[in-house]
Amino acid sequence: MPTELPAGADPRDIPDATVSRLPEYLHALHTLAETGIATVSSEGLAVAAGVNSAKLRKDLSHLGSYGIRGVGYDIAVLTTQISDVLGLRQHRAVALVGVGHLGQALAGYGGFANRGFGIAALFDIAEDRVGTVLNGLPVRHLDELAEVVSAEGISIAVITTPPLAAQRVADSLVRAGVTSILNFAPCVLDVPGNVDVRKVDLAVELQILSFHEHRKSRNGKVAT
Amino acid sequence: MPTELPAGADPRDIPDATVSRLPEYLHALHTLAETGIATVSSEGLAVAAGVNSAKLRKDLSHLGSYGIRGVGYDIAVLTTQISDVLGLRQHRAVALVGVGHLGQALAGYGGFANRGFGIAALFDIAEDRVGTVLNGLPVRHLDELAEVVSAEGISIAVITTPPLAAQRVADSLVRAGVTSILNFAPCVLDVPGNVDVRKVDLAVELQILSFHEHRKSRNGKVAT
């Protein structure tokens, strides 16, 4: 049976926290490869990815990748291993729904294409947006969703609509066959169990920083 | 010694994973409060926040908040407790650097103000942006950063510049006294230990979804 995966690495056994760091390692590896070097120590890779090296070694051991003492990791091999595990060797077509400022920012974001993704279709319902062209892609009406998702083989969608529209959009996406959703609308989506949702709530990120600010100011004032 | 915190809750003892969920609980509480109800069960709050109820109860126990059997949590009390822990009862002024599409999306994002944050200042270096007005705020030149950060009492900044400019902007922010940074540029920032950085990398979120897509398609094909 052909397999793309390194021996011993079953993606179902990789902890979610490790999965969430693999893209960072991959990004660091790409950056290192551009400098022309062929191997990197776990310490070097850890610094480039912004994690500690013990955590990095543990994470990569889940992929069956251990490096060589005194040499480190082969950058090309490790890049292929991580790309395999993340399923990035197959280019993935992404639909984006909601072409406001944020949607336009994402549609124009250059970092997707060289990381395995392409925004393949844009959708909105506003009359003044449908029919316009953004970065070479037409903005289509949401009514065309099912047809386009099927024709383009889209399985991942990004929701950048206002929160009140997000659930209805998610329902349409699920009906059209999308099984992974990246949700920027500040609301919880109700989807079937086979659909993965990741939520990016920009105010939440600020609130977490607020906690750290608050803790710093308390530490400055409160005797411990 | 006056304290805003519920008895028994020291913010230094709250796990990071719990902190990262508190904003979700707070958002769910706000939504529930708008419906006019006064109390909520842990199950009800868990559903509204999109987590499981055992995890929610554990998280809230770190705040010294346990609810009442058969009644649940008092929404107003719990809202105040979480806001206290997150330091949100003090409105925080935020600077945003880099007024491209993403910066404009964030500057126009209505969800910040009612969640304890205000974008207080916008910065860029592009001649065609500096001097323009966005949502009532002038776009200032980055050279004015130190002066404005000090005058407005800004401690949190958002970086929405291209990656090559981000480290230089971060250095300027740190010099100006900013101690928390939300970084949207796809790069690792090198900052002093007293500065908290949270990174939002949009391609990383897509790559994590790609992993789940990949796993789903493997599960469909590979006998287990």
UniProtKB/TrEMBL annotation, chains A, B:
Q: Does the keyword Signal apply?
A: no
> Lineage in the entry?
Bacteria, Bacillati, Actinomycetota, Actinomycetes, Glycomycetales
Where on this chain does NAD(+) bind? 98-103
- Report the main location listed first in the record: cytoplasm
- Coiled-coil regions listed in the entry: none
> Self-association or partners: how does it assemble?
Homodimer.
Q: Which UniProt keywords apply?
A: Cytoplasm, DNA-binding, NAD, Repressor, Transcription, Transcription regulation
Q: Which residues bind DNA?
A: 24-63
HAMAP family on file = Rex
Q: What does this protein do?
A: Modulates transcription in response to changes in cellular NADH/NAD(+) redox state.
Keyword Nucleus on entry: no
What name does the UniProt record give this protein?
A: Redox-sensing transcriptional repressor Rex
Q: Name one GO molecular function term.
A: DNA binding
Q: Which GO terms describe its cellular component?
A: cytoplasm
Family assignment?
A: Belongs to the transcriptional regulatory Rex family.
The CoA-binding domain is annotated at 87-188
Q: Name one GO biological process term.
A: negative regulation of DNA-templated transcription
What is the species of this protein?
Answer: Stackebrandtia albiflava
Q: What subcellular compartments does it reside in?
A: Cytoplasm
Q: Which NCBIfam families match?
A: PRK05472.1-3 (NF003989), PRK05472.2-1 (NF003992), PRK05472.2-2 (NF003993), PRK05472.2-3 (NF003994), PRK05472.2-4 (NF003995), PRK05472.2-5 (NF003996)
